[in-house]
Amino acid sequence: MKTDLFYYTGTGNSLWTARTLAQKLGDARIIPISRIPGEAVESRADRVGIIFPVHMWGVPRRVIAFLNVLAKDPSRYYFAVAVNAGQVAATLLQLKKLMHTKGLSLSSGFEIVMPTNYIPWGGPGPKDKQIMRFTKAGEKIKTIADAVAKREKRAVERGPLWQNMLFAWFNRLSFSHVPTMDKSFWVDDKCNSCGICHTVCPCGNIELKEGRPVWLHHCEQCLACIQWCPPAAIQFGKKTQRYERYRHPEVKLSDMIAVSTPQGEEEKITESV
What we know:
Blueprint: E1 3-7, H1 13-25, E2 28-32, E3 47-53, H2 61-69, E4 77-84, H3 91-101, E5 106-113, H4 127-149, H5 161-174, E6 185-187, H6 196-200, E7 206-209, E8 212-215, H7 224-228, E9 234-236, H8 253-259
Parallel strand pairs: 1-2, 1-3, 3-4, 4-5
Antiparallel strand pairs: 6-9, 7-8
């Protein structure tokens, strides 16, 4: 049975998850959501997976845009993997509801805990804890692969009730403000005008003016720009200069360049969450 794994990634956690899951499943291909134009997408695979990072305790705009163009086919087995830093909250419940409104049925939803890339709130943590999370993530992916191979229908994974309620509220409150949160990015004197930030941005949100990045206010807060900047010249707010950068250690810059969307090809969100 064939599997299509559609993934969205900024610093590699979801790409690594998609790759590892594809290896476990066999006869699977991984497809970057950021390369999909705003046209109808039809998968001919028996199983369709959506792998994405949790943004602000919810589903990223780019993934919602993908759902808007994903063809409806009740014969497919749809599942999802939400990559997060320890608080998946109600993200998969949100995804299930969104898919239902579009005539899609989410048969199962799983969470994977990885080191955080949200540098405005600190670095990814000690190396030993990162390694522990990688190990546990690998074990969890084996479980996911077994369930998907059997097309099992399961309740989507979620956080405790208080977390679901609080963070779902926070997601609704902050969702409309995310695109303009890039006003907090700035560039220090280490910038060498390499243009990598422009190249790796998965939503075409960065252009270069006189060799320096300018953010265009349709940000996803994936933080690919700040995390992949070679000289660590991009900052966010006042604290990131002292924090360690993070990319998944098995994902290379060339991988990100291969999956990033050229500037100006952002899909529009046409339905509210």
